From TrEMBL:
Record keywords: Ligase
Family: Belongs to the IAA-amido conjugating enzyme family.
Taxonomy of the source species: Eukaryota, Viridiplantae, Streptophyta, Embryophyta, Tracheophyta
Domain of life: Eukaryota
Transmembrane intervals: none
Organism per entry: Anisodus tanguticus
Entry protein name: Indole-3-acetic acid-amido synthetase GH3.1
Domain GH3 middle: start-end pairs: 358-431
InterPro entries noted in UniProt: GH3 (IPR004993), GH3_C (IPR055378), GH3_M (IPR055377)
Pfam family of the protein (one): GH3
GO MF terms, alphabetically ordered: acid-amino acid ligase activity
């Protein structure tokens, strides 16, 4: 029997029979990608043929690709917002999906400052669970022995709310962690967490982080991998250890739980774990009291083989910090997913972050690709099927889902790097139009412009205005924060704005940013206070001169609204006259604005 399954996968020798079946499934799906896509589209259109949306475009029960493409338009969230709002308000008729909408998944992307609401159906949980079930069989090909220890993963739920019609609205991972798929998952020796479910499911982010870190310290000799969803989350966890190691060491020394931990379910579960361990407490204190935290991850968790975090896209900015804390451990990006749909997985998870490519699983939804060429005079309009994309070219992802999104533009820009069998592999390039991001937040240029305009209103009484501005996401601080460079025109130097006024400008900008940003500031502590740096007059002229010296056209030069090129940041920072920070938290509540 062992010989049969060991030899059964072209991807490599599976670790066990269950892995062999998973790897075989990947091979079947990718080998027949076009046929699978045809079947998926047929299933989606047939099951939803009587929905209001498909009937509006007179599909008349047709499920073929050509008819679908000729009649159904490519859409954005704003195009679907009226239908989504009707569902949110309680309309239970088959508007987008013939299946009942079970809940809304709130996207980290926003529309008019609020999280986008993505309708979903119950069977989508099974589809997402299927993709999760493929991750460890692939990882086991590259990292042996993961069944001999545990994973220290910092996983959290976020706040949820209800729409006017009574449907839950919450992030996709909160939905998954609260589902029976996760809470009642069968024991898998290759995928055991140090954190009890009670710690992960605690809505208080401090109590959740504290107990997950405490469990990880107790089981430090068992930990083989550390992880979080995003790289920023793991960086934040290490910063948490820096701030709270004394309390954690005290709890380990005495076998008692910090009185700040009051959640009854956590207290009950930790009661089974807590025990006095003075030697471990001394070790934690000795390591954490050192000024140098380089390699702290492998010093405290010496058997760690890799970090399981997303470090593609905006998260790449955290790679140097993770390298510092981990001594350069491999960083595994295992899957590619969004609130709208789960897309695929990385079949070479131990590759360098710059080489990460995700193989699209054709059974997850129907995928089309809009060619993306930022330099094209006329934007392309003809979409390309999954198997027809070309290596080296960039595309915007367009999806059709079982839950009722049809030809929906996700906003992700992907570059084709190759194929696994007939399924393409993509490198995530960036989110379209996203300017700044610290955690899961996404701020675009128009939103930043509005924030600057709103904040600059506070300067009017001082006869002062913002001449120019740019920005960058500073991730060297933990948590990271937005830095906005302002060049001011002060017409009355005797009545210039005070430091207090400029601090209030920081807060005014934060109040103008989207709900995902404000939740990160208020509830998740994943984003630090916004900073405004006032630069000397003439700074942006120097910035233009520098750009022109590097080949930019003086006729076409525009001030970049976001910068990350080190020489430009150095030029700006050398001309800073004053620094100002938001003096308090912006307003945020889980409820959506009506």
């Amino acid at each position: 029997m062992a010989v049969d399954f060991v030899l059964s996968s072209p991807l490599g020798p599976p670790a066990c029979e269950k892995d062999a079946k998973a790897l075989q499934f990947i091979e079947e799906m990718t080998r027949n990608a076009d046929a699978v896509q045809e079947r998926v589209l047929d299933e989606i259109l047939t099951s939803n043929s009587q929905t209001e949306y498909l009937k509006r475009f007179k599909l008349d029960g047709a499920s073929g690709r050509e008819t679908f493409k000729s009649k159904i338009p490519v859409v954005t969230y704003e195009d679907l917002q009226p239908e989504i709002q009707r569902i949110a308000n309680g309309d239970r008729s088959p508007i987008l999906s013939a299946h009942p909408i079970s809940e809304f998944l709130t996207s980290s992307g926003t529309s008019a400052g609020e999280r986008k609401l993505m309708p979903t159906i119950k069977e989508e949980l099974d589809r997402r669970q299927l993709l999760y079930s493929l991750l460890m069989p692939v990882m086991n090909l590259y990292v042996p022995g993961l069944d001999k220890g545990k994973g220290l993963y910092f996983l959290f739920i976020k706040s949820e709310t209800k729409t006017p019609g009574g449907l839950l609205a919450r992030p996709v991972l909160t939905s998954y962690y609260k589902s029976e798929h996760f809470k009642s998952r069968p024991h898998d020796p290759y995928n055991v967490y140090t954190s009890p479910n009670e710690a992960i499911l605690c809505p208080d982010s401090f109590q959740s982080m504290y107990t997950q870190m405490l469990c990880g310290l107790y089981e430090r000799e068992q930990v083989l991998r550390l992880g979080a969803v995003f790289a920023s989350g793991l960086v934040r966890a290490i910063r948490f250890l820096q701030l709270h190691w004394r309390e954690l060491a005290h709890d380990i020394r005495t076998g008692t739980l910090n009185p700040q931990i009051t959640d009854p379910s956590i207290c009950e579960s930790m009661g089974k774990i807590m025990r006095p361990n003075p030697d471990l407490a001394d070790f934690v204190a000795d390591e954490c009291c050192k000024e140098n935290w380089e390699g702290i991850i492998t010093r405290i968790w010496p058997k760690t083989k890799y970090l399981d975090v997303i470090v593609t896209g905006a998260m790449a900015q955290y790679i140097p910090t993770l390298d510092y804390y981990s001594g350069g451990l491999p960083k595994a990006c295992t899957m590619y997913a969004a609130s709208e749909c789960y897309f695929g997985l990385n079949l070479n998870p131990m590759c360098k972050p710059s080489e990460v490519s995700y193989t699209i699983m054709p059974n997850m939804g129907y995928f089309e690709f809009l060619p993306h060429d930022p330099h094209a005079i006329v934007s392309p309009t003809k979409l390309v099927d999954l198997v027809d994309v070309e290596v080296g070219k960039e595309y915007e992802l367009v999806i059709t889902t079982y839950a009722g999104l049809y030809r929906y533009r996700v906003g992700d820009i992907l570059r084709v790097t190759g194929f696994h069998n007939s399924a393409p592999q993509f490198h995530f390039v960036r989110r379209k139009n996203v300017l700044l991001s610290i955690d899961s937040d996404k701020t675009d240029e128009a939103e930043l412009q509005r924030a600057v305009e709103n904040a600059s209103k506070l300067l009017r009484k001082f006869n002062t205005s913002v001449v120019e501005y740019t920005s960058y996401a500073d991730t060297k601080t933990i948590p990271g924060h937005f830095v906005i460079y302002w060049e001011l025109l002060m017409k009355d130097l005797k009545n210039s704005p005070s430091d207090e006024v400029l601090d209030k400008c920081c807060l005014a900008m934060e109040e103008s940013l989207n709900t995902v940003y404000r939740q990160g500031r208020v509830a998740c502590n994943s984003i630090g206070p916004l900073e405004i740096r006032v630069v000397k007059n003439g700074t942006f002229e120097e910035l233009m001169d520098y750009a022109i010296s590097r080949g930019a056209s003086i006729n076409q030069y525009k001030v970049p609204r976001c910068v990350n090129f080190a020489p430009i940041l150095e030029l700006l920072d050398l001309r800073v006259m004053s620094r100002h920070f938001s003096p308090s938290l912006p307003q945020w509540t889980p409820e959506r604005r009506r």
